[in-house]
Amino acid sequence: MQNQKVKLGVVGLGGMGKSHLRYLSKMDSVEIVGVCDVVAEEADKVAANYQTTSYYSHAELFEKSGLEAVLIAVPHYDHTTVSIDAFHLGIHVLCEKPIAVHVNDAKKMIAAYEQAKERKPELIFGIMFQERTLPFHKKIKDILDGGELGKLIRATWINTKWFRSQLYYDSGDWRATWAGEGGGILTNQCPHNLDLYQWLFGVPSRINGFAHIGKYHDIEVEDEVTGYFEHENGMVGHFIVTTAETPGSNRMEVVGEFGKLVYEDEKLVFYRTRESMLKFIKESQSRMGNVENWYTEIPVDTNAPSGHRIVMEKFIAAVQNGGGELIAYGPEGINGLTIGNAIMLSSFTDQTVTLPMDGDAYEQKLQELIQSSKYVKKTRSVEGTDLTFTKG
């Protein structure tokens, strides 16, 4: 089917679903054969805008639209159900982040995909990690993969540019609740950051997490988190995020034996040491002298194409060609999710979590939080802005 239009359906017509449709409608390689939302009025309105058919359940969309592939942009818990139903029918899936709320659901999705591939080996499963396409992130990955830093010592990421007001949390009845969203900043704002961390440095072997529940907002989930990571290779990591700082920071430091890489304010700087710091520690005749280092601002092509459309174009090409390279393969989504779940489990239990983590323990804790919740959700409409099902 190379070069033929891919018949695509979209499930979930909140902020992200509509955002995707704006560029999908301009792609020559895509035919939008149906859109779906449980709010019938919304589905009808969007379908009219894009001259396609509206559906009110994903099962009906899958059965009647003739689609070959689906973009899933529904609230987090529903990623699992919709994806598994698609795999059972041999439908290609591109899922919004996060892959799921907890690792057990992610494992179910991956198992369903692997089972479906036995019947349809060319079946494609992608995940919308568009931040991997951003020029600075790609350059950091390139430098690390090239080994210029040598043995990695430390990675510290402070990302507190996620400021959110109370009105934001009040703008949707599913937001910032254990039952509706399954978590706070780690589940909503930070799946991209968690994915980038594992993409750059791998999954840690031991995690300590410190999560504060509703510290600055009237919510029942976490709005301030610090994670401490230990990796098999000896590297340590720090992950610091919140929705309650303004002006926030986005600073990543990566330290290796051959220097330090710093990304902040759209600038990437490499402090390159003249020799291995590890070798210098052992052999230097100076008690306190530093290794000579050179300041280098790394050139980055910020005009390179990036964003959601790049992820989609790779996905569509893979569907057309019966396989191909994706920006992020669906099963990779469990890695960042594992880090996030482990941070929360560590915080709840006040213990170090060793990976692979106990998925049952975390799922059980989530269910306990849902069942015991006495939180009364206040929902306020935001005039002129539809945020009810917006993700992010």
Report on this model:
- There is one protein chain.
- With 392 residues, this protein is α/β, with parallel strands linked by helices.
- The protein folds into two domains: 6-130 and 306-329, Rossmann fold (3-Layer(aba) Sandwich); 132-302 and 336-372, Dihydrodipicolinate Reductase, domain 2.
- The protein is built from twelve helices and 15 strands.
- The strands form two sheets. Strands 14-13-12-11-7-10-9-8-15 form a nine-stranded mixed β-sheet.
- Strand 4, helix 4 and strand 5 (92-95) form a beta-alpha-beta unit.
- Helix 4 runs parallel beside helix 5.
- The CA-CA distance between the termini, in Å, is 34 Å
Catalogue the unreliable spans. 384-392
Number of helices: 12
- Enter the CATH topology name of the largest domain: Dihydrodipicolinate Reductase, domain 2
Largest sheet geometry: 9 strands, mixed
Question: Any idea what the shape is?
Answer: globular
| Share of residues in helices | 25-40%
In the CATH hierarchy, the architecture of the largest domain is 2-Layer Sandwich
Domain unit count: 2
CATH class identity of the largest domain: Alpha Beta
Q: What string gives the helices and strands in order?
A: EHEHEHEHEHEHEHHEEEEEEHEHHEH
User: What is the radius of gyration?
Assistant: 22 Å
Find the structural class using helix and strand composition: alpha/beta
Spatially, the strands of the biggest sheet line up as 14-13-12-11-7-10-9-8-15
Give me the CATH superfamily of the largest domain: Dihydrodipicolinate Reductase, domain 2
Strand percent estimate: 15-25%
Q: What's the average pLDDT?
A: 95
